[in-house]
Amino acid sequence: MKTVLIGLALGAILGAIDGACSWFYPEVRDVPGKVLFISFASAGKGLVAGLITGFIARKLRSLPLGILSGIVVFALITLPVAVMEDKDSHKVYFWEIMIPGAICGMFVGYATQRYGIGAKPKLTATGQGAAG
Question: How do residues 49-73 score in pLDDT, each as one tens digit?
């Protein structure tokens, strides 16, 4: 499967699962529709971060750098949400949002590097790849 598509799909799926885990917080669970909203928002966040991680993975082709880029991209996209105060409970769930977001980024970074198929190298006039 293409690297960018793996990033998109896995980012959305892991984001939705991450958002659904907010059900374990009673102050979130008690507000009707909040868990569903958080799940959709996390899936959207995962789509964007997975897309960016997939494009980076296409260029890097290095497992450690791919994992690191996934962590950084997901953390940066998660940061604005993590610093916001919840309007219902008046709490800031910084670590509860940042840590799972970074872990999702680690998985997406790994998967895009390990299982993704990047762009084909361009052929030169001799019929060989541009690198060789």
Answer: 999 999 998 888 889 999 999 999 9
- Give the separation between CA 67 and CA 85, rounded to whole angstroms: 29
Contact, 72 vs 65, CB < 8 A? no
Q: How far, in Å, CA of 1 to CA of 37, rounded?
A: 30
Fill in the amino acid letter for 91.
K
* 34 sits in which H/E element: helix 34-60
Q: Is the pLDDT of residue 94 over 90?
A: yes
Q: Reduced to 3 states, what is the DSSP secondary structure of residue 19?
A: helix
Name the amino acid, one letter, at 95: W
Token couple for 127: 């019929």
